[in-house]
């Protein structure tokens, strides 16, 4: 099992965007005594991703934000969904930054790519590499 993880400067805003715009579901949200997010687990189908706040920690030295790399990522998330057109429309309606439009792919299926408010790159498609012959 692989579980991608990242960090956000504004984890509350990230939680809202990932839930309300990208359609992920809250699996667990852990908060400190002051109500600040310390760790979030979100699901999409059988997949899970985690994130937390961008705070000083030993692991922080291995991570940078996309705005620190000219808007580039070193790893992205590809999510297989069965509601691709509706999800794309929701992203457009929310004003999400579309990096690659919804279009058919030569290897099968269709996909689109957006950046979340902090620049992390998310791709959604209906091509499932596990189901492909």
How would you describe this structure to a colleague?
The protein is built from two helices and eight strands. By secondary structure, it is of the alpha/beta class. It has a single domain (5-54, 75-125), classed as Roll (2,3-Dihydroxybiphenyl 1,2-Dioxygenase, domain 1). The strands form two sheets. It has a four-stranded mixed beta sheet with strand order 1-4-3-2. The chain has a four-stranded mixed beta sheet with strand order 5-8-7-6, with helices on one face. The model has no long low-confidence stretch (mean pLDDT 92).
Summarize the structure.
By secondary structure, the protein is of the alpha/beta class. The protein has two helices and eight strands; from the N terminus they run E-H-E-E-E-E-H-E-E-E.
